[in-house]
Amino acid sequence: MWRRVASLSSALESDLMQAATCGAGAWQRAFSSTQVEVEGFERKSHPFVAFVLGGPGSGKGTQCMKIVETFGFTHLSAGDLLRKEIASNSENGSMILDTIKEGKIVPSEVTVRLIQAAMEAGRNDRFLIDGFPRSEENRAAYERVIGAEPDMVLFFDCPENEMVKRVLSRNEGRVDDNMDTVKKRLRVFSELNLPVIEHYSIKGKLRKIDGTGSADEIFERVRSAVFAALREREER
Ligand SMILES: Nc1ncnc2c1ncn2[C@@H]1O[C@H](COP(=O)(O)OP(=O)(O)O)[C@@H](O)[C@H]1O
Ligand SMILES: Nc1ccn([C@H]2C[C@H](O)[C@@H](COP(=O)(O)OP(=O)(O)O)O2)c(=O)n1
Ligand SMILES: [Mg+2]
User: Fold this and answer.
1) Ligand 1 site, residue 61, Cβ cutoff 6 A
2) Pocket lining: 126 vs ligand 1, CB cutoff 6 Å
3) 114 falls within a domain
């Protein structure tokens, strides 16, 4: 995103701090004023990408909305992209619907293609990719197609009973928000998603967030983690 210039770091730090505490408007102003005033700062060619992981109902979508408001990311939910494919009667629609009803994972090439198209259309240099990768196969397909690893991985750690309670009271009319499918999704989460989380933990990219408490309490933890990761990227 930006190249590091040592003499600017304290000015930038106060801009970043102001942005993190004042919301998206200030964040964007802080960055755009830095961008025009500071010679030697250039946009890096690849965007800042954060994967957002956690079991069903762990709060990924809720926290992504707050990250967007505060830090100006573009939010891409893999589940939403797949549901849009179903709604648009695309050739893969019925296969995707059957897979989601069963709580299973849609073939990676379908999901990665949707994510790639959304990133290209997104015209931003910060993306949240929510609910992806959900398996090692998802992860490998993304790295192959996009040719990059994420800058950070947020993981919402939440007890199963709390996740089940939240999913069953979500009330968005989703075909997979029922007890039978939730049990299958939790099994898929442990078997396929947890190894991906472990992979990023070993790589030092994982930011594990306690997903219990109110949405605002959780966001206080998220805000610090995102802020730190943006700073790290800045300093690279
Ligand atoms: N901290 C929280 N406490 C209680 N309910 C929550 C909390 N965060 C989210 N919810 C609610 O739980 C449900 C699942 O949250 P959501 O953000 O959709 O999770 P995910 O995307 O991980 O499945 C939604 O109805 C949401 O409003
Ligand atoms: N990478 C992904 C993401 C979602 N899916 C499918 C399978 C998931 O159970 C559903 C719903 O995903 P979504 O992220 O919207 O679900 P939650 O927000 O975790 O409740 O979509 C997938 O096959 N591959
Ligand atoms: Mg979600």
Assistant:
1) yes
2) no
3) yes
Ligand 2 first shell, C-beta below 6 A: 56-57, 60-61, 77-79, 82, 99-100, 103, 105-106, 111, 131-132, 134, 138, 176, 185
pLDDT digits (tens, 9 = 90+) for 67-119: 999 999 999 999 999 999 999 999 999 999 999 999 999 999 999 999 999 99
Per-residue pLDDT reduced to its tens digit, 148-159: 999 999 999 999
Q: How many domains does the chain contain in total?
A: 1
Buried b (16+ CB within 10 A) or exposed e, 107-136: ebebbbebbeebbeeeeebbbbbbbbbbbe
CATH number of the domain where residue 173 is located: 3.40.50.300
CA 142 to chain centre: 14
pLDDT digits (tens, 9 = 90+) for 29-67: 333 333 322 223 244 568 999 999 999 999 999 999 999
Q: Looking at this predicted complex, what is its ipTM?
A: 0.99
**Beta strands across the sheet bearing 206-210:** 74-77, 126-130, 48-54, 152-157, 206-210
Ligand nearest to the CA of 67: 1
222 found inside a domain = no
Domain assignment present for residue 220? The answer is no
In ligand 2, which atom is closest to the CA atom of 181?
9
Q: Tell me whether residue 230 is in a domain.
A: no
Containing structural domain, residue 124 = 46-215
